[in-house]
Specification:
The chain is α/β, with parallel strands linked by helices. The chain has 2 domains: about 375 residues, Alkaline Phosphatase, subunit A (3-Layer(aba) Sandwich); about 80 residues, 2-Layer Sandwich (Arylsulfatase, C-terminal domain). It is built from 14 helices and 17 strands. The strands form 3 sheets. Strands 1, 2, 4, 5, 6, 7, 8, 9, 10, 11 and 12 form an 11-stranded mixed beta sheet that branches. Helix 7 runs parallel beside helix 9 and helix 8 packs across helix 9.
Length: about 500
């Protein structure tokens, strides 16, 4: 009898300790958010690409949840980045184009509206929220949310938006062997390259440094001997510039992709494949560092892209294909907005699960706030927490929630002013120049090739009203009449 009592007491003590540790891990996990630049929906081998080699990202998917219907809030980069950090639609922020985007079409009846080419410094970011919760916050790589006005970087850079540690790409963000990296301010250059260190590798170096520094801080904290239990958790926002153009790979990565080029009939770009492999190497190094520091069991890792892949020639040959999706970066069709997304947390999230439930980049802020116990969100957050989806993706019903896109601009990738809304399987596209409506059933018609607007007029009107009401609610800025437009000379209706 005494032996049974002793065993029961030991079991109760063990279970209480386990619950205590799990509770600390659940409320204060580390977060590593890795953002690729212009990575297309089908660019990773775990998404079915037969040309690219991405073993580390494939492993991340095998150890986590891979989403087939994740979306960027905008088909270009800056607005999506703002949506991740604020949880708000770009239309609400009035940051609706990439910073410095100013393309117009003189033959169009409309011109873009006056928009906010910056993330307003008054906006509360995810980093600021987590910092208030006790997190050490780090931002590495491409920021691209500051005004081009002189002096604005001081108040609009990551150092002014809640990040304790920042290594932001300074000059020449498109040149992988001729760039600079700023350290915690616009005045201090931490590193300047003249053709020696590949930019993707350098950003990974900083990521590894940040993780190791925070792991060491834990070990020096006398309150916690187990590094898995975090009294001072960290949030790392690692924003790679790859595989964005220009397509400049490492020379030692290129040969095998050149050798495979003819095998696939020239469909895939060897330079792009080599660049993507360097990105994949970086993810592998980040994961290995977490493992070495004993942090995998208390670190949520998210990997995604800022918009769809680039499917046309721009500053060089065409980088990638989004087939079977329609169009690419700069368009509100699926090729411009549907992106890869993988979430992984060793021991806490299911492994090897594929989810078809859709969500948007606006959802990351409320999701991570729920995870970390932040209950007071900024006003007007549009996103919805997806933490339940991340935990039980195979038990979450198909989404019927509306998602919206608003792009009142002419993109560098030949996209034109348009908006869109998706509800369930149906997606409506509105072309702002003409008012034309297009309706697609994405379950039956993923390439958006069969316009159902005339066959399903009730559904078309329903989604049109939903989109119009949403724009009115957010006071979304619409294109303006083009004062130089001459219908007679252009021959357009």
């Amino acid at each position: 009898m005494k032996l049974k009592i002793v065993i029961n007491v030991c079991l109760i003590a063990w279970w209480a300790t386990t619950l205590s540790v799990f509770g600390q891990q659940s409320t204060k996990p580390n977060i590593v958010f890795i953002l690729a630049d212009d990575l297309g929906w089908k660019d990773l081998s775990c998404y079915g690409n037969p040309f690219h080699e991405t073993p580390n990202l494939d492993k991340l998917a095998q150890n986590g949840v891979r989403f087939t219907q994740a979306y960027a809030a905008c088909p270009v980069c800056s607005p999506t980045r703002a949506s991740i950090l604020t949880g708000k639609y770009p239309a609400r922020l009035r940051l609706t184009n990439y910073i410095a985007g100013n393309r117009v079409d003189k033959a169009s009846p409309v011109i873009p509206p006056k928009w906010e080419a910056q993330l307003d410094e008054k906006e509360t970011t995810l980093a600021e929220l987590l910092k208030d919760k006790g997190y050490t916050t780090g931002m590495i790589g491409k920021w691209h949310l500051q005004s081009k006005e002189a002096g604005k970087l001081q108040t609009q850079g990551p150092w002014a938006q809640g990040f304790d540690y920042s290594r932001m790409i300074g000059k020449n963000g498109l040149d992988y062997y001729n760039y600079s990296v700023l350290k915690d301010s616009p005045q201090q250059t931490d590193y300047e390259d003249k053709g020696t260190t590949y930019l993707t590798d350098k950003l990974t170096d900083y990521g590894v440094e940040f993780i190791r520094q925070n792991a060491q801080n834990r070990m020096s904290d006398g309150q916690a001997s187990d590094r898995r239990v975090s009294n001072h958790p960290f949030f790392l926002y690692l924003a790679y510039s790859a595989p964005h153009i220009m397509l400049i790979p490492r020379a030692d990565k290129l040969s095998k992709y050149m050798q495979k080029y003819e095998k696939f009939g020239g469909k895939y770009n060897p330079n792009y494949g080599a660049m993507l492999e360097s990105l994949d190497d970086g993810v592998g190094r980040i994961m290995q560092t977490l493992k070495e520091q004993g942090l995998l069991e208390n670190t949520l890792v998210i990997f995604t892209s800022d918009n769809g892949g680039l499917g046309m020639a721009e500053l060089g040959p065409t980088p990638t294909t989004n087939e079977p999706l329609r169009k690419w970066k700069g368009h509100v069709y699926e090729g411009g907005t549907r992106i890869p997304a993988i979430v992984s947390w060793d021991g806490k999230l299911p492994k090897g699960v594929v989810s078809d439930t859709y969500y948007s980049s606006i959802d990351y802020l409320p999701t991570l706030c729920e995870l970390t116990g932040i209950t007071s969100l900024p006003t007007d957050v549009d996103g919805k927490s997806q933490w339940a989806l991340f935990q039980q993706p195979d038990k979450t019903p198909a989404s019927q929630r509306p998602l919206f896109w608003h792009y009142p601009h002419f993109s560098n990738q030949m996209g034109r002013p348009a908006g869109a809304v998706r509800v369930g399987d149906y997606k409506l596209v509105e072309l702002y120049e003409t008012g034309k409506l297009e309706l697609y059933n994405l379950r039956d018609d993923l390439p958006e090739a069969n316009d159902l607007s005339t066959k399903l007029p009730d559904k078309t009107r329903e989604l049109k009203k939903l989109l119009s009401d949403w724009r009115s609610q957010l006071q979304a800025q619409m294109p303006l009449p083009n004062p130089d437009y001459n219908q007679a000379t252009t021959g357009k209706n």
